[in-house]
Write a structure and sequence with these properties.
By secondary structure, the chain is an alpha/beta fold. About 25% of the residues lie in helices and about 25% in strands.
């Protein structure tokens, strides 16, 4: 099948790699090169870099709805536009540019977690399962009918980073399966049910700034949901630090009588125990502002303001 592929981050790379092995990729569309690194030099997106290496033409418009960009996509003569985490909303005029329309690799079990950050949203909500949906795109945000789904269990240790990598591979395999069904005339797109719709907004840097007045289990999920970006940042003494690793502690393990959220309960070899809304939370690895990650116990040795609060 001749396709145009539209994608940008690492999540989309396995899908493009799978298409290159099995189908004819006429054109790749990705986000423009962005400044990155200490030198802020322009860097190709992971998808654009893979397409360059494969010798596939790459288009990186600032706005894909521009007439020149749409004309380039139409001129590719593709049977389908395959989209995976491209990063721009496609106009219906572009979705109509191919007979099969836009086929999207979406990282959730639609209709749960429509939107920009479904993986982080699933972890933050405490979902036990998520997955990938291969769907046909339409004007609404992730509202189109679904061709197939693949479920994945969310492990207790999963972060957005680890789960994204796993779903990327699942999505690539599901995409090939879906395209095979469509090519054989066996694919059926089923409208999404009206019940069970949830939305996952774009995660922003400020979303990582939390306070201690949350349940400890929720703090632990936020730590994993915001890893690798933007990180969960909590106040500790006189500064706000990123929580790299930590876990809730049983209430009986530390004296909590009369303690308020944010009180430092204990500083020891294992780390720093801080009172959350309902029980203690043990910080085991931290990343202070402008510094590398370190054991919480090492961090505590250099912080005289970390005073254990008495009940």
């Amino acid at each position: 099948m001749r396709v145009v592929f539209m994608g940008t981050p690492e999540f989309a790379v396995p899908s493009l790699r799978a298409l290159l092995a099995r189908h004819e990729v006429a054109l790749v569309v990705s986000q423009p090169d962005r400044p990155a690194g200490r030198g802020m030099a322009l860097r190709r997106s992971p998808v654009a870099a893979l397409a360059d290496a494969a010798g596939v033409p790459v288009l990186t418009p600032a706005r894909v709805r521009e007439p020149e960009a749409q004309a380039r996509v139409r001129g590719a003569g593709a049977e389908a536009l395959v989209v995976a985490a491209y990063g721009q909303i496609l106009p219906t005029t572009l979705l109509d540019a191919a007979p099969l329309g836009g086929i999207n690799v979406h990282a959730s079990l639609l209709p749960r977690w429509r939107g920009a950050s479904p993986i982080a949203a699933a972890i933050l909500a405490g979902d036990r399962r998520t997955g990938v949906s291969i769907m046909r795109m339409e004007a609404g945000l992730d509202t189109g009918p679904v061709l197939l789904r693949r479920e994945v269990e969310i492990a207790p240790s999963d972060t957005t980073g680890s789960l994204t990598a796993r779903l990327a591979e699942v999505g690539a395999a599901a995409l090939l399966d879906g395209l095979d069904r469509l090519a054989a005339g066996l694919g059926a797109f089923i409208p999404q049910p009206g019940a069970g719709v949830t939305h996952a907004g774009l995660v922003r840097k400020a979303d990582g700034d939390w306070e201690w007045d949350r349940p400890a289990a929720e703090l632990e999920r936020a730590m994993r949901a915001y890893d690798p970006w933007p990180g969960l940042r909590l106040p500790l003494g006189s500064e706000r630090v990123r929580v790299v690793a930590g876990r809730p502690l049983p209430a009986w393990s530390v004296e909590v009588e009369g303690r308020a959220p944010g009180d430092v309960l204990e500083v020891g070899r294992e780390g720093i125990a801080v009172m959350a809304l309902d029980q203690p939370f043990l910080l085991t690895e931290l990343r202070p502002p402008g510094r590398r990650g370190m054991a919480a116990a090492d961090y505590a040795r250099g912080r005289r303001d970390l005073v254990v609060r008495e009940g």
